[in-house]
Design goal:
heterodimer, A: two-stranded antiparallel ribbon, B: mainly alpha, two-stranded antiparallel ribbon
Chain lengths: 188, 130
């Protein structure tokens, strides 16, 4: 009985440790198994360099929004010289830091429900470079009329996640937290 | 010695210009082989100079705006760009690597090529004086 109690205490404390420890650590299968929170949303950006470098020009997209194959094509010296028409060159030291941060946290390496859906929808699409081209993400925005996005001066592009997703910085893309400028809450 | 001369000259030429260790060493670096002193008025002209690149008229002001004390806006992503003027934004010009990074990217974007050291020192002098 005593042994049972102490091992239960041990397991329970392990669960607490695993649940709270390392919010910025890459996810692992073991971590997922012993953490019952079963996160729905993608992990927010936890790397300061990533936040500063990418966030200087646009919303710093959490790595869990694209699969590794896509990120690997985007984050090369050559690719960043023409980053969707913009020059986003980085020195190799910084680029290496960002690459190792991102590649360990891509959609296909995450266990969050939304990242799994993104990864599943992106399977086998080696030329997928834009988050807004991920089939799952396209499907999720399918019902929103054009005038609320492209026809809305305060939104303009689907890539402006955090304009309407008020909790995007926390990795939360639930439609409950959507607020469209000049329109309001989005109820389907 | 050169930096001393340059420093004195900068003091005379632009009594209100701000400098930081980062800008001092960058200006010295840009000017190392130059016979021409960095000039605020040259820098101003360069800042407003526009050119057609990829079918679009571009200049520094396309994103930074005409008034350096106001926020600019990235023309594609619409992300706000903090003012360039130190009077209202004292976080600027503190990091050499950062200044160089943005000169490299933005010169290529606006003019289709990297800026020369002379151009960079002129522009930096202008920005520091604004």
């Amino acid at each position: 009985m005593r042994g049972f109690c102490s091992s239960s205490v041990f397991i329970i404390s392990l669960l607490f440790i695993s649940g709270s420890a390392g919010a910025d650590e890459p996810e692992t299968l073991w971590g997922w198994l012993i953490d019952f929170s079963r996160a729905k949303e993608v992990k927010p950006v936890s790397n300061l360099s990533y936040q500063e470098e990418c966030g200087a020009c646009h919303f710093a997209y959490p790595p869990g929004l694209l699969i590794e194959a896509s990120w690997r094509q985007l984050l090369t010296e050559k690719a960043l010289e023409d980053h969707f028409g913009e020059n986003a060159e980085l020195d190799s030291e910084m680029l290496n830091e960002l690459r190792s941060y991102v590649f360990q946290r891509t959609a296909d390496k995450s266990y969050s429900k939304r990242a799994r859906k993104i990864a599943y929808a992106s399977q086998g699409q080696s030329d997928l470079l834009r988050i807004t081209d991920v089939p799952y993400i396209k499907r999720k925005h399918h019902e929103i009329p054009d005038e609320l996005i492209s026809g809305n001066d305060k939104v303009r592009l689907l890539s402006q996640c955090n304009t309407c997703h008020t909790k995007a910085e926390q990795g939360d893309f639930d439609d409950d937290s959507v607020w469209i400028p000049d329109y309001g809450i989005w109820n389907k | 010695m050169k930096s001393l001369v340059f420093g004195l000259l900068a003091c005379v030429a632009a009594p209100f210009a701000f400098t930081s260790p980062a800008t001092d060493s960058l200006l010295e670096y840009y000017q190392r082989d130059s016979q021409v002193q960095a000039s605020i008025s040259e820098g101003k002209q360069l800042w407003f100079k526009s050119q057609f690149i990829n079918g679009q008229e571009r200049s520094c002001t396309t994103c930074h705006g005409l008034d350096l004390t106001l926020t600019g806006k990235h023309q594609r992503t619409m992300k706000l760009i903090e003012p360039m003027s130190l009077k209202v934004n004292n976080k600027r010009y503190m990091n050499e690597k950062k200044i160089e990074k943005w000169f490299k990217r933005n010169c290529k974007w606006a003019w289709g090529r990297e800026c020369t050291s002379q151009e960079k020192s002129d522009i930096l002098m202008f920005l520091l004086a604004e």
